[in-house]
Amino acid sequence: MMTGPIPSQESYPLSVQDYIYIDNDAALRNLAEQLADTAWLAIDTEFERETTYYPELCLLQIANADVVAIVDPFSLTEKEPLHALLYNPSITKVFHSARQDLEIFFHLHGTVPTPLFDTQIAAGKYGYDNGIGYANLVEKMFGVILDKTHTRTRWKRRPLNTEQLRYAADDVIYLGQIYEQMVSKPEYPSLKKLLQVEFNKLTDPQLYLPDPARMWQKIHEARRLSGNSLAALQALAAWRELTARKENQPRKWVLTDQILLEIARKLPVNEQELTQIKGLNDQQLIRYGIELLNIINGVPT
Predict the structure, then answer these.
(1) Of 72, 102, 187, 189, which residue has the fewest beta carbons closer than 10 angstroms?
(2) Residue 23 designated active-site
(3) pTM to 2 decimal places
(4) Contact 95, 117 (CB under 8 A)
């Protein structure tokens, strides 16, 4: 297992107080120019998705060994310099538990930034617990206990206070240090190919835009159905997935799993029968009723 002190001031001069806050296009262009030749970037995001299907990027933290920057996407009108930086194939993008961060970039740009390095995946190969959290890894590697006060911050709100920004900056300062220690270990060359196989899996579009035809498999109790009811549930779940994407709403805001199951069990064939579905409200009936009946009536009998 990897252990070691925090790098010295001489070798790693950054501290959480050193971050710069990017809230205008000129500052972003300057940052992109400053980081264009870096070998790696530590990256983290803060986002919200409680009221949307797609995660909404609220804050972006990036760092190398010399610079820590917190980028406010709501303050920018020209984001191309940031896109060019993140998608520069000469820069390794370092994440911890990258999937949710990569989902944001996938939906914004259609692909994920590569090459990438996930310190959570790598930590498992170095003897730490599989799936170890970022704060736990920082504590085990450096003996630093991170402040968790702002874990539930509503990152979409402005202004953000100094403590919130310092909390956000912590995530990339130590992430960069973790990465540098990992790739400097003597066992890294023998692990590199194995790790790359795992990192490549994170570039699969199916991770971020799942097949609607398979969404029924995520519904509890789905496998208790059979025949026409199962076929109906499969069609309903696929329709809900596509509708949630189109309307940018959480799936359960379109229809809950329980409503889908109830429709699939009872197979209503007209509006009167559909109104008897438990939990289906008038607004949903008006908005989706015809589509739901078309789905049910399209199921072979």
Answers:
(1) 189
(2) no
(3) 0.86
(4) yes
